[in-house]
Design brief:
By secondary structure, the protein is of the alpha/beta class. It is about 50% helix and about 15% strand. The protein has an 8-stranded mixed sheet. An 8-stranded parallel barrel has the order 9-10-11-12-13-14-15-16, surrounded by 6 helices. It is globular and about 85 Å long. The protein binds phosphoenolpyruvate and magnesium ion (MG). Phosphoenolpyruvate (PEP) binds near residues 335 and 452.
Amino acid sequence: MTEFEAIAAAEGRARGKAFVFRHDEMVVPHFHVEKGGVEKEVSSLHEAFSSVRKYCAGQLEKAVSDSEKALYSVQMLMLDDPEWLAAIERCIKEDLYNAAWAVESATDEIVRVLSSVGDEYMKERIIDIVDMQKAVTGELTGKVRQHIRLSRDVVLVADHLLTSELLALEGIQHLKAICLDMGGKTSHVSILAKGWGIPAVVGLKDFSLLVKEGEDVIVDGTEGRVYASPNRKQIALYERKRLEEEAENARLIKEAGILARTADGVRIVLQANVEDRAGVGDAIKAGCEGVGLFRTEFLEMKYGATEDFSVREGIYDEVAGSMEGHGKVTFRTLDIGGDKFLDGMSSQEDNPLLGWRAVRFCLDRRELFRSQMLSILKASRHGNVRIMFPMISTIEELEECLALLDEAKHCLEDRRIPFDRNMEVGTMIEVPSAALISDALAEKVDFVSIGTNDLVQYVLAVDRGNERISHLYRAEHPAVLRLLKMVVDNCHGKGVPVGVCGQIAGDAGMLPLLVGLGFDSLSMPPLSVGRVKERLSRMVKPDCEKLVNNVLSMNSHEKVAAMLKEFNDGRKT
Ligand code: PEP
Ligand code: MG
C-alpha cells in the first residue's frame, strides 16, 4: 500500500484499476546515408507519399460535408505538389539525409518561407502542410498518432495529458478518475475533468512510473490523495467518504431552485462554466443562472468544427435553445494556443502562454474568427446569447474585435439572417495590462469577466500548469487581490457589471473575498454551484467587506490565507 499526496484538481472519489498511458514521442530518426543507400530512401519516400495519398483519397470518398471534402482535396493537392517532393528528394540525394529527416527538414524550410510571407491564405496552408508532414514522417517511422481507447472502467494514469488527448479519448464512460504526474489545478485538463465530474489528482511527480498497470488505485480528488494497492482500512474510509459526498451532492441538487444570495439578502448571480453540450444539462440541473463561460475551443478541438461550420452552428444554436428560460449563454471566442491546439497545429513557440493565443491568434486568422462570430450571432436569435473576448491586452485588440463583430452583423443583415442586434458584448480581464486599463476597456463593453486562472499566472509569473511551482500560484496573493479590487472599482465606476469566471469562483473557501470585493457574478463548474450557494447564504456582505479591507493592507499571501481561514472557520476578523 502506498499513499501519495498532491494537487486536488477535480473533486470526487473513485476506485479502479490503473490504466497507465505512456507518451510515445515521435522521434524522427536523423542520420546520413551512403550514396548507395539513396535509392532505397527515395523509394521509401515515394511509398510513404502514396500510402498517405491513399488514406486521404479514402477519407475524401467518405467525407460528407463540403468543408471536409475541401480539406482532403487540399491535402491531396499538397501530396501531388512536385516542388515539395523535389525539395525532399534534394535533401536525400544532395545532403544524403535519411528520408524521414529529409521530410522534416525540407518541410520546415517551406513553412519558414510561407510564415514570412504574412499572407492570410498561406498561413492557413501551413497547418495543412504540417499535417501532411507528420503523416508522411509517421509512415516512414511506423508511428501513428497516439489515441487513448478505454473499454473497461479504469483510473487513467499518465505523466501528463494534452487537452486534445483527453478530448479524443474513446470510451469516456469508462474513465473513472485521472492521476497525472504533472499539471496544476487550473490546467485545462483539470478544468475539463472538473467540468465532467471526473475526480482528478495532478502533480503526482513520478506516480506514473511507480504504479503498475492494473494495480488497484483509489483517487480522492477532493483531498488530493491517491492510494495504490490500498489496505482494508483505506478502502473502508474511502467508501464512507464517497457515500457521504454523494449524499451531500444529492442534497445540494435538491436545493438548486433556491436563488443565490447572502444572509443579508445581497444577490450574486451564479453561472456555469461549460465546455460542451453535456455541461449545459449539468448547468440547468445545478440551478445556474446562465452560462458565464462557454469555452468554445474544446468543441473545435473535438469536432473539428473549424472545418465544418455547420457542426459548430448546430451546437451553438442547440446550446442557446436549451438555455432559454435558464439565463444567458456567454460564448467566449476561441482561446486557442497556450496549452490548447487545433489538429495539426503544434506549439513552435518558446513561451506559448505568452504567445500566439486567443484573440492574438484569432486576429491573425480572421476568416476563422469572422466565421465564429457569425455562428455566435446566428445563435443569438434565441435572445439569450452574449459574446466575450479572451486574453485582451490592449484597447486596440478590443476595438478590432468589436469592428469585426460589426462587420459580421452587417454580413448577416445583408443576407437577411436573423440575429439579436442587442447581443451583449464582454471582455475578459486575464492580463495585468488589461486589468490596469480596465476603466477604458469597460467603456466599450456591456460586461466584464475576470479570468483569474490566467490573471493569477501572469501577475505572479507562475505557470498555471507547472506542478513544481504550484505553491506559488496563489489567488489570495495581495497583488492579485489589489488588482481585482481595482478592476471591480473601475467597472462599477463605469456602470458595468463585473464577474469572475476563473476556477476560484467555484472555490467556496475564496467566496468571502469575492463577495467582499463586490463581484456581481461568479461563473464556475456546475458541480461547485450548490456548495457555493450554500456558503453564500451563511455570510453577510459587511463582514466580507471588512475582511477584504483588512487583507488589502497586507503584504503576504500566507497572512491573507491565515486570516481567510479564520474567517471561514467562523472566527471573524
Ligand atoms: C481564466 O483564465 O480564468 C479562464 C476562465 O480562462 P481559461 O481557464 O480557459 O484560460
Ligand atoms: Mg484564460
